[in-house]
Design goal:
Number of strands: 6
Number of domains: 2
Radius of gyration: 21 Å
Distance between the termini: 54 Å
Number of helices: 10
Strand content: 5-15%
Order of helices and strands: HHEEHEHEHEHEHHHH
Shape: elongated
Largest sheet: 4 strands, parallel
Strand order of the largest sheet: 4-3-5-6
Length: about 220
Amino acid sequence: MLRRDPDGQDKLQAGKSQVFITTHSPATISAASKAGLWYVDHTGQIGPLNVTKTAKHRKTDPETFLARLAVVAEGATELGFTSALLERSIGSPLEQHGVHVSDGGGHEATLGLLEALAEGGLRFGGFADDEGGKHPDRWKKLGVKLGQLLFRWPSLCIEENVIGAVPDNKLEALLTDPRGEKAGMRLRTLADRLENTEKDFASIKSKAGKWPESADY
């Protein structure tokens, strides 16, 4: 058994000897800041990971580099949406199929990470907003490499696209968590943003007013 020992890993990297470690430990991937890392994607393609450009993600979510298919979502909202969508489509937990969805940490960070991964000829999935048309050439080039594995809204962000597609009489259902864990928190967040003292849906809806009829999503 290989016990996690951050100090020991640092000593191995600082030593003059060449050390080979084979493991499926996320802790090792996170700690191996100076090691050369290679990844085998779902197509069987083997390629190197840019150690510098993937350093932050290896620390925050090393499981990404152990998955059969890794999908980098732009942020926490996209992560939840993508995970739910894929799980519903597959019909079973994603981990049973070796699929892992991770938080890319924002628009710029996600783009940079996906570019770094694609440099080695690897095919990761991606899910991102349009963000006002930022970096069109870079996204287009990345799209050519990843094909259908990259999803981007034609315009605007996930919140505007999803909420804009939901009828007014279904908005309350959109806020409802089937497990009953997050509905109250979501309502409180909306109430705080509207500077409303009450967090019930009727009060929030009255305070927010109507969705602009000119909005086109």
